[in-house]
UniProtKB/TrEMBL annotation:
PANTHER family: 3-OXO-GLUCOSE-6-PHOSPHATE:GLUTAMATE AMINOTRANSFERASE (PTHR30244:SF36), TRANSAMINASE (PTHR30244). Gene3D superfamilies: Aspartate Aminotransferase, domain 1 (3.90.1150.10), Type I PLP-dependent aspartate aminotransferase-like (Major domain) (3.40.640.10). GO terms for molecular function: transaminase activity. Belongs to the DegT/DnrJ/EryC1 family. This is Glutamine--scyllo-inositol aminotransferase. The keyword Iron does not apply. InterPro entries: DegT/StrS_aminotransferase, PyrdxlP-dep_Trfase, PyrdxlP-dep_Trfase_major, PyrdxlP-dep_Trfase_small. Keywords: Aminotransferase, Pyridoxal phosphate, Transferase. It comes from Phytohabitans aurantiacus.
């Protein structure tokens, strides 16, 4: 079996450090917050070359808290791409905002910046560009287009730890939310997330909301939530963060190898936007001709852990049916949902494993 993501291989590299760290946390009984969390927040901020990092319970909370920190509330419109994981839209709804969807670029699958800017109305409070599959969207174009407005940009950076655009990472122009779900490039041993920002005020607001609306016990200045990073997850994240740059390089090497191996096949390979350093959280190819599901089934039958990211655009989910969108409203997102196929990729994948993936893919394609 070749898994889509090999979490066991990653754990093997950090097992001793994690065990020692767990013993520290247990001995000190610092299960919520504590020195391990503080150290991770400082280390992740330094890794991201950004001033502030606030650890939270998961990536969905991170997006919601970032939205609330910039002022999104009941009735405010928030623009996001239709081809994201539903958590992005859930976070908007939980913050009280109204989801406004736009299509994606047909080649990179990143948010269509022109469509996003065209969708801005007097009710728009934020745009959420999703840094999909491991590369950053054109955030600088959004900032240029929004100059002179009070529309905030909250980046969904759940899939791009360590990625850069024109030498800058997610959040360096304002605020970004990320996820440390186990399968991410930087993954915990359970749910975890963070908000990173250049603003001390925004960081303080996020930390306050996430801690029941106050920074000291029984002081509740805001209506908050319970969304805090725990010490055990911080131990795991610290151990993996020390290896993340190297792991991302291995992902880039694996992606380059896929590019070469797949060149003769009738698939559309992924495109990296000019100016981006990709971290290849997901390596997806497009299978034309309506054959994606057939090919996926053949790969899975051959014990190749391929998958789909994502099979249903937000506007076609039951959860957001009340938005009033219909099939055909976002053709590029819909085509991506019908044709994209994610191939196994992780730092420890071997050349032999990739050779086998491509051989089985070629066989499935006929």
């Amino acid at each position: 079996m070749i898994p889509l993501v090999d979490l066991a291989a990653a754990h093997a590299e950090v097992a001793e450090e994690v065990e020692a760290g767990f013993k520290r946390v247990i001995a000190g009984t610092a299960f919520i917050g504590g020195t391990e969390v503080t150290a991770f927040e400082e280390e992740y901020a330094a890794f991201s070359e950004i001033e502030h990092c606030v650890g939270v319970a998961n990536g969905t909370d991170a997006v919601e808290l970032a939205l609330r920190a910039v002022g999104v509330g009941p009735g405010d419109e928030v623009i996001l791409p239709a081809n994201t994981f539903i958590a992005t839209a859930e976070a908007v709804a939980r913050a009280g905002g109204r989801v406004v969807l736009v299509d994606c670029d047909p080649t990179t699958y990143l948010i269509d910046v022109d469509a996003a800017l065209a969708a801005v109305t007097p009710a728009t409070r934020a745009i959420v560009p999703v840094h999909l599959y491991g590369q950053l969207a054109e955030v600088e174009r959004l900032h240029e287009g929004l100059a002179g407005t009070d529309v905030a940009i909250v980046e969904d950076a759940a899939q791009c730890q360590g990625a850069t655009r024109n030498g800058r990472g997610a959040g360096v122009a304002g605020i970004a939310a990320t996820s440390f779900y186990p399968g991410k490039n930087l993954g915990a041993y359970g749910d975890a997330g963070a908000v990173v920002t250049t603003s001390a005020d925004l960081a303080l607001t996020v930390r306050t909301i996430a801690n029941h609306g106050g920074l000291t016990k029984y002081a509740h200045d805001l209506v908050g939530v319970n969304s805090r990073l725990d010490g055990l997850q911080a131990v795991v994240l610290r151990a993996k963060l020390a290896r993340l740059a190297g792991w991302n390089e291995l992902r880039r090497a694996a992606a380059a190898r896929y590019d070469e191996l797949l060149a003769p096949l009738d698939v559309v390979r992924p495109v990296t936007l000019d100016g981006n350093v990709h971290v290849w959280h997901i390596y997806c190819v497009r299978i034309p001709g309506g054959r994606r599901d057939e090919v996926l089934a053949a790969l899975n039958a051959a014990r190749i852990g391929a998958g789909i990211h994502y099979p249903v655009p937000v506007h076609l989910t039951g959860a957001f049916a009340d938005l009033g969108y219909r099939l055909g409203d976002f053709p590029h997102a819909e085509r991506a949902a019908d044709e994209l196929l994610s191939l196994p990729i992780y730092p420890q994948i071997t050349a032999d494993q990739q050779d086998r993936v491509v051989r089985e893919l070629a066989a499935a394609l006929g």
